[in-house]
Amino acid sequence: MNSIDAQTTDAQFDHLAGKEARDKIRELAEKAGVCFFCTNIRSGHAFSVRPMGQEEIDENGHLWFLSASDSHKNAELEADPATQLLFQGGDYTPFMTLYGHTRISTERSRIEALWDATMKNWFTGGKDDPRITVLEFVPTDGYYWDTQNGSLVAFAKIAFGALTGQTSDDSIQGTLAP
Predict the structure, then answer these.
(1) CB neighbour list of residue 11: distance below 8 Å, 6 or more residues apart
(2) What's the pLDDT tens digit per position in 121-166?
């Protein structure tokens, strides 16, 4: 096998489930702060994508967003709730992709809990703007790429590999099953 994964002795694969997966989702999503929120997912067709910042990540690994009821995103979610979120936490790592579905609600208590002053940028009527909806993304599975020992060690191993011609990798990757 000529795969880079077969050439390195350092690469690690870790398949996380349950609480471990939910903790990793929280860690990497918080590190990224913003994700690409993808809807209208159909094989062989371009999907719809837009950057969004999650307002909360709960203990179940669900990600919460605020969105306008009259947005293209909400219309696409009403037609098909299948959703993919794409995260990048830094220049080189970590990365995470999550698949799942998104529920739309107008629950006032959740809007109150998720609201912050920056939202007025999109909802000029404030937290009582009638267009505000809550999006709850429920992950069903995912995949992540990270470093085992942090960015400095990963960079040092890459530099060592470039100098010596040996594959040296500090990566860790695996599936997420929340």
Answers:
(1) 4, 5, 169, 171, 172, 173
(2) 999 999 999 999 999 999 999 999 987 655 544 444 454 455 555 5
Confidence of residue 169 (pLDDT cuts 50, 70, 90): low
Q: Quick: pLDDT tens for 50-66.
A: 999 999 999 999 999 99
Closest residue by Cα to residue 53 from 33, 67, 39, 69 = 33
In this structure, which amino acid lies at residue 51? Answer: P
The kind and range of the H/E element at 177 are strand 171-177
Is residue 60 within 8 Å of residue 178, measured between CB atoms? yes
The distance from CA 169 to its chain's CA centroid, rounded to whole angstroms, is 23
The amino acid sitting at 140 is: T
Torsions phi, psi for 166 (to 5 deg): -100, 145
